[in-house]
Specification:
By secondary structure, the chain is of the alpha/beta class. The protein has six helices and nine strands, in the order ββββββααβααβαβα.
Amino acid sequence: MSYHTGYSCRNKVVLYYKEVPLFSSIIESVDEGRTSVVPPERSMVNQYYIEDSFQYLMFEWVFKHRRFNYSSEAREMFLRVIPVYKNDEERREFGKYVGDSGIPSYSLFRKDERMQGKALERIRNTKINIYDEYHGPSTREPVAQLVKSNPELVINFANPQNKCFQSITEALRKGKMMVDWLNDWRCNKG
């Protein structure tokens, strides 16, 4: 999964009740423009969705109604690197937990502060695969099958010549770490 705002379209999605707009968002493109999404919410620490928010509901709606080749695989990959919290309370509780476990309070994506403890161990053990056959269209179907069959797999599909390739890979690593950690935290919480 590679997130490219350079492929952004100027389309918007707007949710109305009668004639009153309740929600509005731009529609961004992922995977070199092959898939459209409502972008996640952003905080100082990470990007995320809240399950009971308009943002997430519209994310799902756009995936259902703007489908292209391999959209379901793109959705899966996207949700493997973007946490989806049940509600704001869960997001705050989990944020406190990871803060206490070694993630600097506001700098998950900054290089000037270092992770420590459990966070550092987790990031070191989080693997992101690289799509080696960037210009090989015949490899798309086997890769799509691989994505479907392996729920742990995250692949950076960005062109290796992209000047942001390494930072995309690191952002994917951090996102996957957060999603995996959230799932583990939920299982061990109660």
